[in-house]
Amino acid sequence: MMNYSRKFIFIWLLLYPLALFPAQDAVEKSHSTSVAGMVQLLELETQLIDNLNRYADKLESKLKIVRSGIAEMSLKNAKAALSIEEYLSNPLIAFSLIRRMNRDWINWELYMDEPIGTKEIDFLQDHREFLPTSTDLEEASDGFELIQTTYGLNSTDMAKGLLNGKQYDARLSVLDMYAIGQYHYDQENYGASSDWLYLTIENHKQNPVGVPLQIDFSDVLLLYAEVLVKLNRYKDAVQVINVALKDKKFDAKLIRRRLEIETLIRNEPNIKPKPFNKSVGDFERGCRGEFPALTDAKLYCIYNTTSSPFLRLAPLKMELIGLDPYMVLYHDVISPNEIAELQEMAKPQLKRARVYNSTKNTDQLSKTRTAKLAWFLDTFNQLTERLNQRIMDMTNFVLNGSEMLQVMNYGLGGYYVKHFDYFNTTKGPHITQINGDRIATVLFYLNDVEQGGATVFPEIKKAVFPKRGSAIMWYNLKDDGEGNRDTLHAGCPVIVGSKWVCNKWIREREQIFRRPCLVRK
Predict the structure, then answer these.
(1) What is the CATH number of the domain that holds 394?
(2) Within this chain, do residues 213 and 357 fall inside the same structural domain, yes or no?
(3) Do 322 and 428 sit in the same domain of this protein?
(4) Which of 3, 144, 310, 391 measures 20 to 30 Å from 451, CA to CA?
(5) How far apart are the first and last CA of the chain?
(6) How many helices (H) and strands (E) does the chain have?
(7) Distance (Å, rounded) from C-alpha 464 to C-alpha 452?
């Protein structure tokens, strides 16, 4: 009976993540939350561009026919101008003119009215369901804003492609800047909105948006004026509206709004502009690389040969980076081939990450964790079995009862808000009460990240930046089994790059003979 119960618990554990993370709505794409997920979006754009090109080819073909007809008819018509009466006295010419006027222009009318590119239009309509939604755009704007605020980046520099001191061959369009300005206005981030709308106005003067994407410039100016009003900059707002009125002198909406703001000026003549500086905390400092380097006289690097008998034959390069909480960094612990295989396994299965809600005792989509992930059973294939064995070698823990391997890919501004990996056995999921809390976390970095993406521990002022093939491991619980609050950590936003990680959460119950003092009564 005992063996049957243990077997039942183990099977339940394998199925648990599938129940914990239910299937998502088919329409939910969350394009911006994974770079790998955006690959399909780029492929779709390529198809749409090709489709538009075919549409243009048909337009050009029709235009070529029209131009050819114009040239032929103009040649005949021009001959008549030399001597109209003599020209028309020829019966061949006279008959041809009457026939053309009776028949040909009817055919030209029909040809002009003939629809062009219906197949291409249908193609675009058939693919509209795969295009990003307004929610996708909002999430992308969230990520973009997070990059800017976390790393303290200047709006002008970002618009020009200068990110955190490095210039890239990319820049934002006028429409991009306008969308960011609108987003910040909707979020009531009026300081940031004023920056981006000002950039929209300045760049629009140099590179106005053409048909069919053009925007009403007075709408941009009016929104900028509204932002200035929110910042108590009433006089500046009136000047902006006056600029808009130069092109629309009799626009009732603009005139009325100017009168309203002038009334505000009279009623509040001494009002001071609102400041909009963002505070910088330990999270931001860690992400910016301002924490002390991971060096300490008490810490050291060794070849680990003791965690398991196998390591005597194949030791692992281990760097001790913390004692409380216990934290080590392994180097070159996963090979390039293994990384490539993991990524290929994960790409077709990537789904939007979810976060556990202790109040509702369920997992749900959250803006606090912007990434996509895939789960793999320990016995999924030889690679997962090999990685789990390596984790046991690294940690000297037993993995029975632990969660499955998780492979994750972050997208635009992808990050994970400050959190603890441990639950609380009285508040956590039911499976936590069966298999215990998360005693340790192992996090593999599957690639280098060009800029950003560090794992930050703000309470102990430590930051680990992704390095391909490395893995960080730390204990989440103290010796008495209580959660260690110094393990509070966060994933910094990715500025540039595609951050891939693989993690394993190890449960405490099976460690009874590995770390006995953790067992709760």
Answers:
(1) 2.60.120.620
(2) no
(3) yes
(4) 391
(5) 22
(6) 17, 19
(7) 11
Listing DSSP states for 366-413 in one string gives: -TTB-EEEEEE-TTSSHHHHHHHHHHHHHH----TTPPPEEEEEE-TT
* b/e map 186-211, b = 16+ CB within 10 Å: eeebbbbbbbbbbbbbebbeeeeeee
Q: How many domains does the chain have?
A: 3
Sequence-distant contacts of 192-196: CB under 8 A, at least 24 apart: 192/145, 192/148, 192/155, 192/276, 193/227, 194/224, 194/227, 194/228, 194/231, 194/276, 195/155, 195/156, 196/155
Sequence letter at residue 354: R
Q: What is the pLDDT of residues 88-129, one digit of tens each?
A: 888 888 888 888 889 999 999 999 999 999 999 999 999 999
- CA 440 to chain CA centroid, nearest Å: 29
For residues 363 and 162, the model is more confident at 162
Whether the CA torsion 209, 212, 217, 219 is positive or negative: it is negative
Instruction: Kindly report the number of other CB atoms within 10 A of residue 480's CB atom.
Output: 8
In 305-381, the DSSP E strands lie at: 316-323, 326-331, 351-352, 354-357, 362-365, 371-376
46 near 388, Cβ under 8 Å? no
CB 492 within 8 A of CB 424: no
Please give the single-letter amino acid code of residue 20: L
The whole domain housing 514 covers 2-23+289-518
Q: Cβ distance 463 to 286 under 8 Å? A: yes
Residue showing tokens 């973009």: 144
Do 479 and 384 share a structural domain?
yes
Is the pTM value of this prediction over 0.85? no
Tokens 């999430």: give the residue. Answer: 139
Reply yes or no on whether the pLDDT at 232 is more than 70: yes
Secondary structure in 3-state letters for 476-509: CECCCCCECHHHCEEECCEEECCCEEEEEEEECH
CA–chain centroid gap for 371, Å, is 8
Q: Which residue has the tokens 């206005």?
A: 185
Report DSSP letters for 124-178, one per residue. Answer: HHHTGGGS--HHHHHHHHHHHHHHHHHHT--HHHHHTTEETTEE-S----HHHHH
Residues 319 and 407 in one domain: yes
Model confidence pLDDT, tens digit, residues 274-329: 887 778 999 999 999 999 887 654 677 888 887 778 888 888 999 999 989 999 99
Structure tokens at 186: 């909707």
CA atoms within a 13 Å half-sphere pointing along the CA-CB vector of 314:
7
**Nearest one of 315, 318, 313 to 328, comparing CA atoms:** 318
Kindly state whether residues 403 and 497 are assigned to the same domain: yes
Amino acid at residue number 242: N
pLDDT, one tens digit per residue, over 115-171 is: 999 999 999 999 999 888 898 899 899 999 999 999 999 999 999 999 999 999 999
- The values of phi and psi at residue 431, to 5°, are -65, -25
- Confirm if 438 and 507 have CB atoms less than 8 A apart: yes
CA distance linking residue 224 with residue 251, whole number of Å: 17
